[in-house]
From TrEMBL:
Residues 3-194 form the Flavodoxin-like domain. InterPro entries: Flavodoxin/NO_synth, Flavoprotein-like_sf, Flavoprotein_WrbA-like, FMN_Rdtase-like_dom. It comes from the Bacteria. SUPFAM superfamilies: Flavoproteins (SSF52218). It comes from Candidatus Brocadia sinica JPN1. Coiled coil: none annotated. This is Trp repressor binding protein. Belongs to the WrbA family.
Length: 203
């Protein structure tokens, strides 16, 4: 079963989280992670004027853009985004807005979905971003999956992560590395999506 991990990342932090979610998927027998990104909406001249943005794009240059076929083939889907004023990034939302044909056909109904986010600051909107993104996923008929408190790192994280989904605090310069607890919570989401997706397929 394929687990689609679709994300948008400006500086590379959400991309790094996507790879950790993929590691969790790989721990589940019968599950295969598929990492895809979405089309950039920031003008090229803006990106070229910023060394940090250019470095982020270089880091992800080999990641393919997601297709509708990727969504169809997936047995479960993880959505990754930075927060934008407490909400999902325009780039990821733009891709979700293009899923009308799959929505009309019921292609995504019954598929497990999880969300992971990155913010610059501790109170930068991780939970509001996940909660607001849950609405479109419910409209698509997906089954929301979070991270349960059996993942003990939720009790001790000093960075990101909540029962709603993995989180990462990147810092105001976007250079803070993902810490061990944040990474563990990312892997936990990947495992849970794979487990739930495989369980639903067996039924």
């Amino acid at each position: 079963m394929k687990v689609l991990i679709i994300y948008y990342s400006t500086y590379g932090n959400v991309y790094k989280m996507a790879k950790l979610v993929a590691e969790g998927v790989k721990e589940v027998k019968g599950a295969e992670p598929v990492i895809r990104t979405v089309r950039e909406l920031i003008p090229e001249n803006v990106i070229e004027s910023r060394e940090d943005m250019k470095a982020g794009k270089e880091m992800q240059k080999d990641v393919p853009l997601v297709t509708l076929e990727d969504f169809k083939e997936a047995g479960a889907i993880a959505f990754g985004t930075p927060t934008r004023f407490g909400n999902v990034s325009a780039q990821l939302k733009n891709q979700i807005d293009q899923l009308t044909s799959l929505w009309l056909a019921g292609e995504l109904e019954g598929k497990p979905a999880g969300i992971f986010v990155s913010t610059a600051s501790l109170h930068g909107g991780q939970e509001t971003t996940i909660l607001t993104l849950m609405g479109p996923l419910l409209h698509l008929g997906m089954i929301l999956v979070g991270v349960p408190y059996s993942v003990k790192e939720l009790f001790s994280t000093q960075g990101g992560g909540s029962p709603y989904g993995p989180g990462h605090i990147a810092g105001v310069d976007s250079k803070r590395e993902i810490d061990q607890q944040e990474a563990t919570i990312c892997r936990a989401l990947g495992r849970r999506l794979a487990d739930v997706g495989l369980g639903l397929q067996k039924k």
